[in-house]
Design goal:
about 160 residues, 4 helices, about 35% strand, globular
């Protein structure tokens, strides 16, 4: 009987559709990847890139550029407010940079720069996430993820501004 229950629950789980949880925003920007890469690998630039409703309380560390740069920030994505330490952990000019947000419930953020061959750079800003369990799942999908996506859209708009 126990084996039948395990098999039935495994079959149910296999049929459950995978829900997208990652926050991903892309935009073509009329600038070379190297210029954009330099901006985002300097954490002193991040307070200007992230609008005030999305992030606040910035404290950039003594090292602000390149791998090992650190900062503290409070993110506000809808009803989610999270204060985190961050460290730039990967900077492969001019293609990719990654920041790891530390502490409990931290996350990783990645910028990827792709030359389009038309004088623009496609920039993709990604935070891979697992969908939270019930009862937070509905709030995450209905308010937090859309607010997070809107913030990332604004970040890329600001990055595109001269």
């Amino acid at each position: 009987m126990l084996m039948l229950l395990v098999a039935a629950s495994a079959a149910f789980a296999a049929k459950k559709p995978q829900v997208e949880a990652d926050v991903v925003v892309s935009r073509e920007i009329a600038a070379p990847a190297s210029v954009l890469f330099e901006r985002v690998t300097d954490l002193e630039q991040w307070p200007a890139l992230f609008p005030e409703p999305c992030a606040s309380d910035w404290q950039v560390g003594l090292v602000s550029k390149g791998v090992g740069a650190t900062a503290e920030v409070t993110y506000h994505f809808g009803p989610m407010h999270r204060s985190l330490d961050m460290e730039l952990i990967k900077a492969e000019a001019p293609y990719v940079m990654e920041v790891n947000h530390l502490r409990k419930l931290g996350f990783m953020t990645q910028f990827v720069f792709t030359d389009t061959g038309t004088g623009t750079t496609k920039v993709t800003l990604t935070t891979p996430l697992y969908e939270p369990p019930w009862p937070l799942r509905k709030v995450f999908q209905a308010t937090i993820r859309p607010a997070w996506t809107a913030c990332y859209t604004q970040v890329l708009e600001r990055l595109a501004a001269p």
